[in-house]
Amino acid sequence: QVPLVESGGGLVQPGGSLRLSCAAPTSSSINAIAWYRRSPGKQRELVAAMTGGGSLEYADSVRGRFTVSKDDAKITAYLQMTSLKFEDTAVYYCNIEGAISTWVYDAWGQGIQVTVSS
């Protein structure tokens, strides 16, 4: 298994911002990224994605507020979240398709809590 390390979650007030990070091993490269979230009592939801070709996809509920990106030098994926709402409260998971040399992997982060509360 390829370890991904998520960071950046926490408690924020409505209207605030957070940036989630998902670090992949330094020996690897990132091809594609997806961020999911799961709220209590709800199914896992695809929030944002970046394909290997660079195309971006966002859930309707976050479009215009969230931005997915990556830093190839740092081998890290990001989810910038702005104008946060109560309903954005969830555990967020990153999913990366990457490569270590010629070996392609599909890995998940450990999940990180984002709580939007006043």
Describe this structure in words.
The structure is a single chain. By secondary structure, this protein is mainly beta. It is built from no helices and 11 strands. The chain has strands spanning 5-7, 10-12, 18-23, 29-38, 45-50, 56-58, 66-71, 76-81, 90-100, 103-108, 112-116. Strands 2, 4, 5, 6, 9, 10 and 11 form a 7-stranded mixed β-sheet that branches. 29% of the residues are buried. The mean pLDDT is 96.
Q: DSSP strand (E) fraction?
A: over 45%
Query: What's the overall average pLDDT, rounded?
Result: 96
Rounded to an integer in angstroms, the radius of gyration calculated over CA atoms is: 14 Å
**Helix/sheet category:** mainly beta
Largest sheet, described in full? 7 strands, mixed
> Helices and strands, in N-to-C order?
EEEEEEEEEEE
- Helical fraction equals under 10%
Low-confidence stretches: none
Number of strands: 11
Shape: elongated
Helical region count? Answer: 0
Q: How far apart lie the N and C ends? A: 38 Å
